[in-house]
Amino acid sequence: MSDRRLGAAALLLTALSLGACSPADGDDKAKPVAQAQPGTESKFDNPKPLPGDVSLPLPCGGELVLRSVYVLAQGSLDDREVNLGYPFSEGEAGYKQSFISGYRRDFINGQFSLQDLAPQWQKAVAPSLPKVEKGGPLTPMMYFIGKYEVTARQYAQVMAQAPSLAGGDAAPACEANNDAAGRLPKVKLSRFEAERFAAVYSAWLMKHHRDLLPVSGRGSKAEDGGVGFVRLPTEVEWEFAARGGSAVSRQELEGRLFPRKVEGADSEGPLGDFAVFNQVAGGTGQAARLMPIGTKQPNPLGLFDVIGNAAEMVQESFQLVNAGRLQGAYGGFVVKGGNYLEGEGTLFTGMRREYPLFGVDGTEQRNETTGFRVAIGALSAPRSRYQELFEQWQKEGRLAGLTDDIDAAQDPTKRLDSIIAAATDPRQQAELGLVNEELKRNVSLIARQREEAAGNLIQSAALVAETVNNYNIRLTNLQNTQAKAEAAGDQTSARMYGAAIANGRAALDGAVAIYIDNLASGTRYTDAVIQAQFQRVKEELNRKPVLGNSLVTRATLFVRHVGEYRQNRRADPATILKELLASAAPRP
Fold first, then answer.
1. Where does the record place the Sulfatase-modifying factor enzyme-like domain (predicted)?
2. 3 state SS of 539
3. Which residues make beta-bridge pairs with 230?
């Protein structure tokens, strides 16, 4: 069968398999899946197991290992703003190609909640997720991406299934491919062949292991369309995960390379410990070659070879970078991460290249240095989540979401909706509709800006509270030293310390006043915004091992104080100071 006919059959199977029989049905019992020797797949498919690994079976006893990536969000319709690419400065290597890999804004979210996963996946993933209160404003939404690049062995195992999935009678034989070449990333394949791999593998999984796939809205009917499937990752999914995702701080997330922390050392490890690339000066390619998966160290999310080794295809067609966003024309296909022939100076997490889909002779473009890893996706709007999505959509662009001073029932944007619905002049209705959409768009933009400002306020207030404690420690030390000077009869030193104490009290009172001003500012945001941003701030601060623990305590107290200030419209400085100092005391 030709590649074209095989690909068409595989893509058709992906669509048909939404209604495929489950493994319990008689057809599947009559065609058992061949298995390799127990345990051999771990050596070849997961050479470096890590806590939190999840996997899907491969034909012939193999496994495809994935890592979870989460985003704290209010649900499926929410997302997080992230920055991609790199802000090159003039004269820096890469500056003249800023239109390819330059700094730009994008948004990221996951499609699966913890409840959407099979029990064994829930057990593996749950320990790495942030602890959230039941019914809280935010929940971890996840996507899954390959821990390693797809290997030649895995590619062959999957593609051998295509004939039987297209209607063949016998299960395909499992040929041993356990040599070192089988562990190399699969390269020299076209974008279309990578997609055909995803289509065949999805069809095979849905036929034999549907119960292991994540389902957006688990428990819903199969025809709702929420069953997970294999695909190439999107560019933002790939880059967010490659940078370290939610496992790193916001500052680290925007670095040129992901953090390469070495236990017991202050400095980062060399890139050569984490990536396969050309380490010969001048980038001649000498001594550079493709390496088996898992030979280097992983990035902070547990992903291997996101930089170097085989470059990796992603889902989207290429777009140029223009004014901090993607430009509106489409080109070839996008390749990320660089390859083993690249020199260290050209490698960075936001690196991207454009390649044509077809060679000069019209055949599918294949590169010696380009492979791929896969992701697990699902429909963005499965019918089982329509109501949830609709309710979230209704809240977008509402002025009541910006302040507690506007009652939801009296929201002017709702009144405008009613006026438009009641309008009898079609022309006037269309004009009002345009105004309404622009108003909602701007309200949503303001809401995002206010959410970010609320998060910054919580962090700033926590730092002010920490400053209050530090001022009080210094003041106490001065008072003790003054008492010693007075006991020794050193009046000159006592007067000097007295002046310092007066300045210290003024500084302490000033810091408390700033803290109370922050409380007043906090009431300008809705309680829902404060609570959601508090959850995000806690997650960020928890990554800072020493100061972070203290600041989480401060932030927790600040959010409580904001609630009290919202109710009382005042705060007593002496009470605030007492509670701030009490929160600093070590817990038993």
1. 143-375
2. helix
3. 376
Share of the chain above pLDDT 90, in %: 59
> Any residues with CB less than 8 A from the CB of 51 and at least 6 apart, and which?
124, 127, 128
**In Å, what is the CA distance from 559 to each residue of 222, 400, 514, 537?**
43, 21, 15, 11
Q: Could you tell me where the DSSP H helices lie in 488-526? A: 491-522
Angstrom distances, CA of residue 63 to CA of 14, 38, 542: 20, 12, 34
| Whether the Cβ atoms of residue 285 and residue 29 lie closer than 8 Å to each other | no
Q: How much helix, strand and coil, in percent to the nearest 5, is found in the chain?
A: 50, 15, 40
- Whose tokens are 């991609």? That residue is 84
What is the residue type of 468?
V
What's the mean per-residue pLDDT of the chain?
A: 86
Q: In this structure, which amino acid lies at residue 280? A: V
Q: What tokens does 403 get?
A: 């302040």
Which of 199, 204, 230, 186 is CA-nearest to residue 6? 199
Can you tell me whether residue 248 is helix, strand or coil? coil
Domain extents for the chain? 3-17+48-261+269-383, 445-583
Q: Would you tell me which CATH number, out of the four given (3.90.1580.10, 2.40.50.180, 1.20.140.10, 3.90.79.10), belongs to the domain 3-17+48-261+269-383? A: 3.90.1580.10
**What would the pLDDT profile of 368-420 be if each residue is shown by its tens digit?**
999 999 999 998 888 888 888 888 887 787 777 777 777 777 788 888 888 88
What's the pLDDT band for 171 if we cut at 50, 70, 90?
low
